[in-house]
Amino acid sequence: MNTEKLFRIAITLKGLDGALQLVGGLVLMIVPASAVTGFAHAVVTRDLLGDPEGTLARHLELAAGHFVEGRTFAVVYLVAHGLIKLGLVWALARKVMRAYPVAAVVLSAFVVYEIFRAIHTHSLALPFFAALDVVIVVLVLREYRQLKRDRVAA
What pLDDT is recorded for position 103? Predict the structure, then answer.
């Protein structure tokens, strides 16, 4: 598989990721906080997780409470992250030359943030996403160099 195809696949995946983040942020904006805490409470009181005083039940209610507290951040983060990714993917798909260095810098910043968050949250998924973003940065830079060579040769 050549670099161009790999690049196209990578930006398509990044576009889908951005779209999912945008939709997720919009859904979080619409769903009332009371619905989240009410759902958690209903699950716990109906013994769906076992003992209502048990560890799993406490974790669910605690997570719902943290969600309500951090909801504004989550909405802003998801919507902004999704829009930025979609904008970059749109520009890269149209081979807008100025977008390549911007994409490399923005995606690198995402990598730094993902690693920072992984260290503080002990997330197992974030290092995976950071590694994926590093691969995409490399592909973006390779594609940029190739486009520059092609334009000079033309």
Answer: 93
The segments of the chain whose pLDDT lies below 50 read: none
Radius of gyration of the chain (CA): 20
What does the pLDDT read at residue 111?
92
Inter-helix orientation angle 125-153/99-121, to 10°: 170
Alpha-carbon separation of residue 124 from 89, 117, 119 (angstroms)? 26, 11, 10
User: Are the beta carbons of 61 and 40 closer than 8 angstroms?
Assistant: yes
DSSP-derived letter for residue 122 is: -
> Cβ(101)–Cβ(145) under 8 Å?
no
Calpha distance 97→70 (Å, rounded)? 37
Tokens standing for 48? 């769906």
Provide the pLDDT for residue 23.
93
Residue 135 near residue 10 (C-beta atoms within 8 A): yes
pLDDT for the residue 91: 94
pLDDT value of position 139 = 92
User: What is the rounded distance in angstroms from the CA atom of residue 136 to the CA atom of residue 14?
Assistant: 9
Find the helix or strand (DSSP H, E) in which 120 lies: helix 99-121
